[in-house]
Design goal:
Bound molecules: nicotinamide-adenine-dinucleotide, 2'deoxy-thymidine-5'-diphospho-alpha-D-glucose
CATH architecture of one domain: 3-Layer(aba) Sandwich
Helix content: 40-55%
CATH topology of one domain: Rossmann fold
Length: 350
């Protein structure tokens, strides 16, 4: 049985990917390696935890020895690396943690893979999951392609850019088989409610202010998380070593328009009069260094590997709203304790 290691499998995208891989490939042993930070939650994987081909190991990727041990103990043949500190606002208040996990943690995994696979490199794969934020910020026009120059502008994106460079360096220097994908903003169930869409849904439900940064004119390109999982699957199995693939939804929204659309959907779902939730919109101090626009050209992935997003945004957003409304207990659990204090303090400071 081949062992596929997925790091960060208890997080938002990771849990969708683990579920997808466990169900699609019963012949693989899927090992979910996660430290379970505030963003990692085994509740996200209740429906697969009893499956024979699934295993969880609680490990911190910053612990080089522990990472090496996992590679030895489970004879890892391939890896999809998602574990990271992922929230831009947190990288502004606490950059150092991003440097450790996103850069040093990635190097620990690269070293463990290189060491374990040294005698038969070609039969293995190190797949690094990255972000479109490494390309910086677009103006009103244009799209990020795989050859766009890196220009990261937040501590988060700088740490991801650094890890991308290191992954490529291990490909060129040590012949480690690698592949990288850079994806746009994901949305769907199980996303920690500090990110725009689940935060807004949670606050609308609780009649709390909807904090829109700056004038709300920043643009993001949204992709349904399960479409990201199908892209990763395709790239893992069919992508060329040493290559980069951009993944995007071709679905650009200004933040304010997206928040207003969510308000409209939520008014209907909650039986509120039209316009009720919009009154909660509150313009707050902008994010420092806020990138204006991200938009992805994913034609390489579409043309070379035949991938396409499956869901129309309206359908995906409605599905997402329904998921959060049906999983209030999950929302309450993940926002209980320290998180609520953190959020209230951050909101007050804005
Ligand atoms: P997330 O914050 O929801 O999950 C991150 C996971 O990593 C959590 O389970 C956490 O416990 C784990 N983790 C953090 N530090 C760790 C450590 N030191 N050791 C082991 N595990 C650790 O993140 P996400 O939104 O699911 O993003 C996953 C990956 O995809 C990240 O690498 C991110 O940069 C990338 N990405 C995210 C998006 C997006 O829109 N969310 C888009 C493109 C790329
Ligand atoms: O583009 C991919 C990236 O998308 C990933 O690499 C990151 O891990 C992921 O967090 C996401 O980054 P963003 O910063 O784009 O996502 P976030 O949900 O934090 O914010 C989306 C937009 O909404 C952004 O322009 C900031 C704005 N925003 C966000 C929050 C949380 C608000 O206006 N108000 C808010 O309360």
């Amino acid at each position: 049985m081949k062992s596929l290691l997925i790091t960060g499998g208890a997080g938002f995208i990771g849990s969708h990917l683990v579920r997808f891989m466990v169900n699609k490939y019963p012949e693989y042993r899927i090992i979910n390696l996660d430290k379970l930070t505030y963003a990692g939650n085994l509740e996200n994987l209740r429906d697969v935890e009893e499956k024979k081909n699934y295993l969880f190991v609680k490990t911190d990727i910053n612990d080089a020895e522990a990472v090496k041990k996992v590679f030895e103990e489970f004879d890892i043949s391939g890896l999809i690396h998602l574990a990271a500190e992922s929230h831009v606002d947190r990288s502004i208040t606490n950059p150092t943690e991003f440097i450790y996990t996103n850069i040093v943690g990635t190097v620990n995994l690269l070293n463990a893979a290189r060491h374990k696979w040294k005698d038969d490199m070609e039969d293995h794969l190190f797949y690094h999951v990255s972000t479109d934020e490494v390309y910086g910020s677009l103006g009103d026009t244009g799209l990020f392609t795989e050859t766009t120059a890196y220009d990261p502008r937040s501590p988060y994106s700088a740490s991801k850019a650094s890890s991308d460079h290191l992954v490529r360096a291990y490909f060129h220097t040590f012949k480690l088989p690698v592949v990288i994908s850079n994806c746009s903003n994901n949305y769907g169930g199980y996303q920690f409610p500090e990110k725009l869409i689940p935060l807004m849904i949670h606050n609308i439900s609780n009649n709390k202010p909807l904090p829109v940064y700056g004038k709300g004119l920043n643009v993001r390109d949204w992709l349904y998380v399960e479409d990201h999982a199908t892209a990763i699957d395709l790239i893992y199995h069919k992508g060329d070593h040493g290559e980069t693939y951009n993944i995007g939804g071709n679905n650009e929204w200004r933040n304010i328009d997206l928040v207003k659309l969510l308000c409209k959907i939520m008014d209907e779902k909650l039986g509120r009069a039209a316009g009720t939730s919009e009154k909660l919109i509150t313009y707050v101090t902008d994010r420092a260094g806020h990138d204006l626009r991200y938009a992805i050209d994913s034609s390489k992935l579409q043309n070379d590997l035949g991938w396409a997003p499956s869901l129309h945004f309206n359908e995906g957003l409605e599905k997402t709203v329904d998921w959060y409304l049906a999983n209030e207990e999950w929302l309450n659990n993940v926002t209980s304790g320290d998180y609520q204090k953190y959020y209230d303090k951050m909101y007050e400071e804005r």
